[in-house]
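Onboarding guide, step 5: your first structure request.
Type a short instruction followed by the sequence, for example:

Predict the 3D structure of this protein.
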Amino acid sequence: MKKKYAFENIVAETLLIPLYMRAKESGRTDAILRDPEAGRLVERIDYDFSRFDGAKLSAVGCVVRGRYFDDAVRRFIAERRRPVVVNVGCGLDTRYQRIAERGNALFVEMDLPEVIDLRRELLPEPDADRYLAGSLLDTGWMDDLREQYPNSEFIFVIEGVLMYFREEQVWQLLGRLADRFGGGEVWFDVCGPILARSKHLKPDSLRGHEARIRSGIGDGHDIERREPRLTLIEQGIYQRFFPRRWGIGGRLLGLLPGLSKQFSSMLGYRIRE
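The system replies with C-alpha cells like these:
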C-alpha cells in the first residue's frame, strides 16, 4: 500500500528525484544502472513522480552519477583491507544493495533524522549497512565514525547534496573530513559556476521546486589549491559517459569539457595522510 510522506526540509524532498530516475532506468533494456530496489521503494511512496518525467537530462545524469560513484566504491573496496563506505546525505540510495562485490566492507548511511526515520521504515537496516542520523555540517558523526572504526579506511560519497549548500559550508565540510580521515577518499558531484550564479537556470528536475543551487565549482584543481590535503583523482564529465543517451546537444557539450564543467561534473579526491 502506498503511503504519503511529508518532508520538513526542502532539500530532503529532493531525495525522491534520483530514486525515481533509478527506478525508471531499471526498466530499460539498455539500462546504465539497474536498481530493482528503487522500483520497489517508488511503489510504496504516494507522490506525484510524474512531475519529473520531463527532466530528460537529469534522468540520464542521475544514473550516470550513480554508476560512476558505484564504480569508485567498488575500486576502493577492492584495494583496501578494512573499507568503510559512508554515504553522506544518503536519502533513499541503495548503493549497498547494488554493489554485490562488497566483501568485508561496512557501509554507513548518514542523513538528517527525518530521512533516516523514513529509510528505516522503507528500507530496514541490514547488518553491514549502519544508519546514522546527523547533519552534514556537524562534526559529531565524523568523530563517532573515527572512534568506532579506528583502524578502518574511509571513502565518503556525497551525491546530489553539495550544490544546495553555500560555498563556505562546502569548504568547511571538506576541511573537516581532511582533518579526520587521512588516507581515505571523498567523491561528490557539483554544479558549475554557470548554474550557481544564475537566478533562472536550474537542473531540469528542479524547475518549479523551491530548492536553490547555492554553490558551484568548475575546475576540480581549485579545491586542491584551497584545501591542499585533497589530491584530485579525476573530474568526470557527465556527457562522456554513455554519449548516445544525451542527445545531440549533450554529445556536443561532452566534446567541450571546459564548458561542460561550468554546468556540472563529478569529482574524486584522495585525502593525504
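Each response can be followed by summary notes, for example: The chain has a mean pLDDT of 92.
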